[in-house]
């Protein structure tokens, strides 16, 4: 099933090797299992268009400093997908990855952030409220029912394949400059 996205154009990022860098709590075995058995399979192996993922366990340079691996993963990916859980949003890795993704917005004028709410977190966060207001489609929530999962996966595929600027709320998009 193909969905036509209004204003869709292929999202090309210079120097991108991966479509998506996935950052998540690698210390939580349940989250790691979900990413490897569900997210990786659905995005990399299933569907018409396979989306190459950058994953810490598989693609990072062993022994390299964390900041170097994070920087390269964000830089060489078209999008950065944050798989958010209660434990992960409190870590330094999350904060550093978010900072580096925002730095890409400031330096290159590329909004690469996609938030996947695996658990209901940051509900009172000013950042999350602002993100939803500016670019609601870049915030996706794991469905509560199995029946909604096919829609979730299609929606996530669409979000990571399209430039976030095309999904900005039209009320606010006039305030953003383009290079």
TrEMBL record:
<dbReference type="GO" id="GO:0051607">
    <property type="term" value="P:defense response to virus"/>
</dbReference>
<dbReference type="GO" id="GO:0005886">
    <property type="term" value="C:plasma membrane"/>
</dbReference>
<dbReference type="InterPro" id="IPR035897">
    <property type="entry name" value="Toll_tir_struct_dom_sf"/>
</dbReference>
<keyword id="KW-0472">Membrane</keyword>
<keyword id="KW-0325">Glycoprotein</keyword>
<dbReference type="GO" id="GO:0038187">
    <property type="term" value="F:pattern recognition receptor activity"/>
</dbReference>
<feature type="domain" description="TIR">
    <location>
        <begin position="16"/>
        <end position="160"/>
    </location>
</feature>
<dbReference type="GO" id="GO:0032755">
    <property type="term" value="P:positive regulation of interleukin-6 production"/>
</dbReference>
<dbReference type="GO" id="GO:0012505">
    <property type="term" value="C:endomembrane system"/>
</dbReference>
<dbReference type="GO" id="GO:0002224">
    <property type="term" value="P:toll-like receptor signaling pathway"/>
</dbReference>
<dbReference type="InterPro" id="IPR000157">
    <property type="entry name" value="TIR_dom"/>
</dbReference>
<keyword id="KW-0732">Signal</keyword>
<keyword id="KW-1133">Transmembrane helix</keyword>
<dbReference type="GO" id="GO:0007249">
    <property type="term" value="P:canonical NF-kappaB signal transduction"/>
</dbReference>
<keyword id="KW-0675">Receptor</keyword>
<dbReference type="Pfam" id="PF01582">
    <property type="entry name" value="TIR"/>
</dbReference>
<keyword id="KW-0812">Transmembrane</keyword>
<protein>
    <submittedName>
        <fullName>Toll-like receptor 7</fullName>
    </submittedName>
</protein>
């Amino acid at each position: 099933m193909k969905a036509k996205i209004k204003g869709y154009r292929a999202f090309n990022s210079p120097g991108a090797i991966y479509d998506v860098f996935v950052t998540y709590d690698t210390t939580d075995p349940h989250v790691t299992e979900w990413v490897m058995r569900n997210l990786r399979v659905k995005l990399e192996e299933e569907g018409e268009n396979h989306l190459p993922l950058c994953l810490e366990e598989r693609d990072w340079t062993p022994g390299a400093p964390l900041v170097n691996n994070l920087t390269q993963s964000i830089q060489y990916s078209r999008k950065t997908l944050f798989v958010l859980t209660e434990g992960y949003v409190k870590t330094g890795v999350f904060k550093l990855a978010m900072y580096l993704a925002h730095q890409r917005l400031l330096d290159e004028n590329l909004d690469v952030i996609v938030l996947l709410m695996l658990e209901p977190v940051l509900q009172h966060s000013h950042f999350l409220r602002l993100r939803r207001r500016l670019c609601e489609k870049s915030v996706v929530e794991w469905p509560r029912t199995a029946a909604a999962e096919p829609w979730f996966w299609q929606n996530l595929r669409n979000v990571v394949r399209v430039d976030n600027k095309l999904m900005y709320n039209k009320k606010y998009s006039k305030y953003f400059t383009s290079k």
